[in-house]
Design brief:
Subcellular location: Plastid thylakoid membrane
Membrane topology: Multi-pass membrane protein
Keywords: Chloroplast, Membrane, Photosynthesis, Plastid, Thylakoid, Transmembrane, Transmembrane helix
Strand content: 15-25%
InterPro entries: PSI_Ycf4_assembly
Protein name: Photosystem I assembly protein Ycf4
Structural class: alpha+beta
Strand order of the largest sheet: 1-2-3-4-5
Largest sheet: 5 strands, antiparallel
Number of strands: 9
């Protein structure tokens, strides 16, 4: 019975780790979109890692790993530290307690990774399109170090087209907007991992409005 319990705990942690990567694709928890535009300027604020879904999974992973570590510590000392729980249900330390310790430590490291992303707000920044000076500016926050602040400028004359990479359906249900340039190549305008505001209307409307603002063609290509 105990072996089955340890197996289920490990399975839950593995599934939880997989959900950290895949669930945001299907949960539409709104991340705030800010920006402003005028006749000669367009400013897009790009959200970073400080999104509700990231706070949820970071907290969920932290609490889950602490719970698993509590069970492993109880198995090491042979008793529970809360009187509400009977000591008859203590998990043997070898080998179940050791396995739970490994899962708990792994969960703490995973939670630490998410909290650091949130603290540094990796991926946040802005896109600024200035028609008056014929310049496009991109700014992003990265990891601490040499590339903590990433700044890129592109002349509007170098912009060849806008590319909307979307699902191969009659009407795209999600997508990522790119800018094709002569010197810098392809530059993503929307976060590649942002699954929160990709309804067909929002995706196509933003691409179409920006295409008219920059006076460049737009094309829709399927995911490769």
């Amino acid at each position: 019975m105990i072996n089955v319990y340890v197996f289920l705990v490990g399975l839950v942690l593995i599934v939880m780790s997989a959900l950290l990567v895949n669930v945001p694709k299907f949960i539409s928890w709104g991340s705030e979109k800010h920006g402003c535009r005028s006749q000669d300027a367009w400013l897009d604020i790009v959200p970073g890692s400080r999104k509700p879904i990231n706070f949820f999974w970071a907290s969920f992973t932290l609490l889950g790993s602490l719970g698993v570590l509590y069970i492993s510590v109880s198995s090491y000392y042979g008793r529970h530290f809360f009187s509400l729980i009977s000591s008859e249900f203590v998990v043997p330390f070898l080998p179940q307690g050791v396995t739970l310790t490994f899962y708990g430590i792994a969960g703490l490291f995973l939670s630490l990774h998410w909290w650091l992303l949130i603290f540094w707000n990796v991926g946040s920044g802005y896109n600024f399109f200035d028609k008056k000076n014929r310049m496009v500016c991109f700014f992003r926050y990265g990891f601490p170090g040499t590339y903590r602040r990433i700044f890129l400028r592109v002349r509007m004359e170098d912009i060849q087209s806008l590319i909307l990479q979307a699902n191969p359906n009659p009407e795209p249900s999600s997508g990522v907007l790119y800018m094709q340039t002569r010197e810098q190549g392809t530059i993503p305008l929307t976060p590649v991992d942002d699954y929160y505001d990709r309804t067909p209307r929002n995706v196509i409307q933003k691409a179409w409005d920006l295409s008219r603002f920059l006076c460049v063609p737009m094309e829709i290509v399927p995911y490769s």
